[in-house]
Amino acid sequence: MTSIQVGILGATGYTGVELVKLLHKHPHTSLSFVSSQTYAGSKMSEVFPELKSICDRVLLSPEDALKQDVQCVFSCLPHATSAGLCKPLVDKGIRVIDLSADFRIRDLAVYTQWYKTEHPCPELLPQAVFGLPEHYRSAIAKTNILANPGCYSSSIMLPLIPLLKEIGANIGTIIADSKSGVSGAGRGLKLGSLFVEAHENFSAYSIGRKHRHIAEIDQELSVAAGKKIAITFSPHLAPMNRGILSTIYLTGSTDGAMCLEILRKAYKNEPFIRVREPGNLPSVRDVAYTNFCDMSVTGGTEGQPVIIVSALDNLLKGASGQALQNMNIMFGFEETTALL
Amino acid sequence: MTSIQVGILGATGYTGVELVKLLHKHPHTSLSFVSSQTYAGSKMSEVFPELKSICDRVLLSPEDALKQDVQCVFSCLPHATSAGLCKPLVDKGIRVIDLSADFRIRDLAVYTQWYKTEHPCPELLPQAVFGLPEHYRSAIAKTNILANPGCYSSSIMLPLIPLLKEIGANIGTIIADSKSGVSGAGRGLKLGSLFVEAHENFSAYSIGRKHRHIAEIDQELSVAAGKKIAITFSPHLAPMNRGILSTIYLTGSTDGAMCLEILRKAYKNEPFIRVREPGNLPSVRDVAYTNFCDMSVTGGTEGQPVIIVSALDNLLKGASGQALQNMNIMFGFEETTALL
Amino acid sequence: MTSIQVGILGATGYTGVELVKLLHKHPHTSLSFVSSQTYAGSKMSEVFPELKSICDRVLLSPEDALKQDVQCVFSCLPHATSAGLCKPLVDKGIRVIDLSADFRIRDLAVYTQWYKTEHPCPELLPQAVFGLPEHYRSAIAKTNILANPGCYSSSIMLPLIPLLKEIGANIGTIIADSKSGVSGAGRGLKLGSLFVEAHENFSAYSIGRKHRHIAEIDQELSVAAGKKIAITFSPHLAPMNRGILSTIYLTGSTDGAMCLEILRKAYKNEPFIRVREPGNLPSVRDVAYTNFCDMSVTGGTEGQPVIIVSALDNLLKGASGQALQNMNIMFGFEETTALL
Amino acid sequence: MTSIQVGILGATGYTGVELVKLLHKHPHTSLSFVSSQTYAGSKMSEVFPELKSICDRVLLSPEDALKQDVQCVFSCLPHATSAGLCKPLVDKGIRVIDLSADFRIRDLAVYTQWYKTEHPCPELLPQAVFGLPEHYRSAIAKTNILANPGCYSSSIMLPLIPLLKEIGANIGTIIADSKSGVSGAGRGLKLGSLFVEAHENFSAYSIGRKHRHIAEIDQELSVAAGKKIAITFSPHLAPMNRGILSTIYLTGSTDGAMCLEILRKAYKNEPFIRVREPGNLPSVRDVAYTNFCDMSVTGGTEGQPVIIVSALDNLLKGASGQALQNMNIMFGFEETTALL
Known about the structure:
Four copies of one chain form a homotetramer.
Chain A lengths: L3 E6 L4 H11 L4 E6 L9 H4 L14 H5 L5 E4 L6 H10 L3 E4 L9 H8 L13 E2 L2 H10 L2 E3 L3 H17 L3 E10 L14 H4 L4 E2 L8 H13 L6 E6 L6 E9 L3 H12 L5 E3 L8 H4 L5 E7 L6 E7 L7 H11 L10
Parallel strand pairs in A: 1-2, 1-3, 3-4, 4-6, 5-6, 7-9, 11-12
Antiparallel strand pairs in A: 7-10, 8-9, 10-13, 12-13
C-alpha cells in the first residue's frame, strides 16, 4: 500500500503533539510538515523534547505550510482562524481534517450565536461532513472537508445517538454532567489552567447552557431524535491530565434494559466502542491513552432516570485519535491502523 | 470558661486525625484519650508522625477507653460497631457524638435494609438528634447522643432542605451528581484506594440508588418537603485527597432566582454557609481545609432544570468539623470556636 | 494584650493569601489593608472566593497602602520592587517584614551578581535582620526591617546551621537535592506552571549553582561554619501544590550519630522543629499546612556520606508562617500564636 | 517473518499489564497464555477492564501455564518465587525473560544478603545474562535466561556504565538521588501506596544503602569501573503514577564536558537513549509511556560535582519495555518493534 503525505497546521498544541505521535506509528503516512505561528523556525522537538528522534522537523509558518504538496492536512488551529486556512487547501484538492469547530455547525446562524463571529468560510460548509465515524462512515469516506467533533460532544453523542434514533420519542429531559481533565483547556496561559489552581480542586464551569459544545450536541441529537433537543450540559474540571467521563440522565418513559440492548446492537462491530456489562462502570483510567469510548447503562426502574456513563480520552477519541480514525476511513486504510 | 474532657474512639482513621487537630486548637477542651483496636499501646504520633508534639498520647484499647472519666466522646468507629460502644457511655451521662451512620436513620427497617444488619442499639435511637447544625440547632444543644451526618449527605441536604421546605411541592425529580476525594473511602486497604488506581482516573460507582447515604438523604429531604422523596444519587471518585462537589438538578416548575433567594434568606446568618453570587460557582479548592459549605444556583429558565452546585471538605464540614461544631453547640461554646 | 494594626503589600500571590488566613486566626492583630497593583479596587474575596467572610476588604493600590497608619507591614512584592516600598514605611517607624530577597543578602555585590540589578535600597541593609527565628531570635525582636528567608533556603539552613557551627571544619562537599511543590513558582502565568506540564511529571531545573537561593544559603552556612561554603544545590519540581523535601549529603569525616545529637540539642526547645528518631524519615505530608520543619539524620558510616532529610511547607515555614513567627517575636506575642 | 508464541507468568501486576499491551502491538508475537495465582479462571479483561477487546483470555493457574507450548515466557513473578518456575521452562527449551531480581545477582552470597533467602535456582545462574541491551546486546541475543534489570537500576546504570568504563579511576563518591512514581511499589495493598498517603506528599525511604537495587547497581558499576563501587542511593516516592528521575552526583576529578562527550559517543546509535543538549534537562513527562531513557550532564567545574540527570518510565524502559526490547534481540526481530 502506498503512503500519503500529510501535514499538521497549528501543531504545537496538545492535539498536534498527539497527532505527531500517532502518525509516527502509522505505516502508510509520511509527515511532510508541521506548522506554528508562534514557534515557526524551531524544531518540533525543541518545543517538545518528548518528540526528540520522533519528530525533529522544523516548524513552518502557516504561509509556508500552505505551499506544501500533500494529500491530507490536519488543522489544529483555533475556530474562526481554521476555516480560512482550510479553504485554499481544499481548493487545491487536499483533503482536510479540521479539529476546530468551524465546520461542525450546519446552521450559520447557530454558529454565529455560539461563536460570536461570522463564519469565515460558509461556501465550504455544505460539503463538510461531521466526523463521527460510527455514524457517518460512508460520508466520511468521500469528503474533502471533515469536521472532527468536540471532546465533550463525542462522549455524549456516542451513547445517545443510537438511543435517540430508536426511542427518542420517549425521552424527556437529557442532562449530561461531564468531567474533563485539564488538557481539554489547551496549552494557553490561563489562570485556571495553573497547576496550583486545578490540583486538589474540582470545579464546575459554564453551567446552564453556556458551553459551546452544546451547539453541536443539540444539532446531532436533534437529527437522531427527529425532534428538537435542548440538552442540559454541565462541564466540570477534574484534576487529571486527560480523559472525560460523562454521566448522562434520561428522564421520561425509558427502560434501562432496552437502552443497553440498543447500544449493544448498535456497536457490536465497532472496534472502538466498548459497551460494559451491567454493574461494570466505565472509568477514565480504562480509556486513557486509547481511542476507545466505554459506556454503560444503569437505572431506569421505579421511576428513576436511565443513567448512562461514558468515558473517553479527550485527546484521542475526543480529538486526535478520532481524527486519525477519520483519515484512515477517508484514505481507505484499515480503520484501526495506528490506533490499536 | 471551664474546659471539658473529651475522648475519641477509633481515632486512627482520617476523621480521628482531623478531630485531634481541631481539638488541639480548641481553648476549652482537653483531650483525655484516643483509642484504637489496631494500634492500642502505640503513641498517636507514632502512627501519625504529623501529630508529633500535637498529640503524643498512647492509644488506649476501646475497653480501657470506656473507663475514662470524660464529658464528651466522639466515636469514629464503623457503623454497627459504634452504637454498641456509645450505649454505656450515654448511660454514664457522657454526651456522645457519633460519626458513624448508626443513629442517623430513624426507621429501624430502613436501617436494616441499607446496612444489612439489625440495629445494635435501638433503645437509644429515639433520643438521637440528626446533627445538621443549621437545621437542628436547638435539639442539638440538648441531646446526649448526636448522629453526625454523612459527607455526601451534608453536601446535598444543606442546599436542598431550605428549598424543599419552601417549594417542595413544585419539585419533581432530584438528581445529585456528586464527586468526592479519595479520603472519603477511609484508610482501609482497598484496591480502588491505591494511588495508581485512583490517580489520573475519574470513575462512577454505586450508580442507581445503591449508596447508603441515600437512606439519610431521603429521610431528611422527605421531612423538609413534607412528601416522600427518592433521590437519584450518583457518587463519583475524583483524584484528590479531600472535598466533595455536588451538582444537583431539580426538575419541575422551579425558578432559579427564587431558589437563590430562599437560600440567601435561610443562610444569611450562618457562619459556615456561603451562598455564591450568580455566575460565581463553588469549587473544592475554596472550601478545602475549612468548615464552609459553599453553594450556588443556576438555570431554571426556558424549561431547563435548576442547577445547584455545592462544595465542602468531606473531612471537615462533611465529618469532623461538623462534629466539632455540634460539640460547640452542645456545650455552649461559641459555635465557630477552632473552626474559623 | 492590645492589638496591632497590620497591612500586606502584594497580597494577591500565594504567600499573601496564606498571611491573610494566618492573621485571621491571630487574636492580637487587626488587618488594616491588603494591596495589589493588578487587582486594586476589587475585594480580596472576589479575587480569592475562598476568603469570602474571611477577608472581604477592598484591595488598595500600593500608593494608597503606603498612607495607611499601621504598626507592621508584610511585603509580598517581588525582589527589586519590594525594597523601594519598604523604605518609606521604615522611615515612618513602621516595622516591615519583607518576604522578598531584597534584604537577605548582606553583600551588595553578591546581591547584584545573583539578582542582576543594583540594590534598590542599600541604606537600609545594615539594619536588616535575617529572619530565621531559631538562630536570630534576639536580633529579630529588635529589628525594624526583617528579611524573611527563602523556602528552599529554610529547608537547607535549618538542619545545617547547627551542624556547621559545631563540626563545620570536618565537612567537605555539601549537596542539597531539593524537591518543591508547584506553589513555589508563584501565581504567574508560566508554561511550566500549567497543570498539564507539571502533573504526572517530575523535573530538575537550575541544576549547577544557578538558583538564586544559593546566595543566601552560602552566606548563612559560611557564617555558621566560619569558612567559605559553596553548596551544590539541585532544585526539582514535584507534582504537588505545597511542600519541600530536601535530601542533603555531607561528605567528609562526619558521623551520623553525632550529627543527630547536635540537632537534638540545638532544637530541643524549639516549637517548630521536630528532629525525627532514626529510621523515621520526614515527608511532605507530615508538615503540609503547618509551620513545622521536620528533619532526620541517616548514614555517615562505612565511608558513606551523612544524609539529612528535611521537610517543610514552602508557604508556611518556608514563607508566610515563618513571617508570622517573626512578627510574633518582633511584637512580643507568644511565638506560636496562630501557628499551632 | 514467522510469529512466536509467548506467555506471561504473573500477568496481573502492573508490569504484566504493560507487557500485554506491548505484545498486542507486536506483529510477530502471539500471546498464548497469561497466568495468575490469585485470579486464575477469570478473564484478563475482567480483572483489567482497560484490556477489554485487547486481551480477553482466561488467566491460567501457574501450574497450567507451565504446560503450555510456547517459545518465550516473561516472568513477572516476585523474586524467590520466579526462579523456581523459570527452571522447568528453560529445561524444556523455552527462552525466559525474568523481570524479578532472581537472576540479576551473579554472587549467591550477595543475593542472600540482600534478599534474605537462599537462591532458589543457583544452577541456572551461570548462563543468565543481565538484560541491559545497550551493554550486553550480543550475549542477550544468545541467552535462554535473561535477567531484566530493576527500574531504579536502569536509570542509574545507563548513564554511569559508559562513564565508569572510560574514567572510572577518577571518580570518587557516587550519589544517586532517585525519585519514583508510585507504580514502582506494585499493586499490593500497602498503606504507603494508598492515594491519600501518597498524594500531595513526597517522601524519602530506604535511605542509607538499604534498597535492594543497590546489589545490582554496585555489581554492574564495579564491572564497568574495574574497581569496587559502593553507591550512595536514596530512593524517594513522588506523587505520580509512572516515571523515575535520578539525579546523580559524581565527586572526584571529573569534567562535565568530557562526561557529556563520552555519553554522546556511547549512545549515538542507540534508538532508546537520548542524550540531551547542555541546559536541556530530562523530565519524567518526556519519557512517560515510552521506552526512552533521557540523560543530561551538568556541572563539573569549580570544584563542583558532575551532575547527571536521567529519566525513564519505570514500567517501560525500567521493566516491560526493556523486557520486550530484550525479546526482540533474542528472537532476531527489529529491536524497536512495538516500542517506537
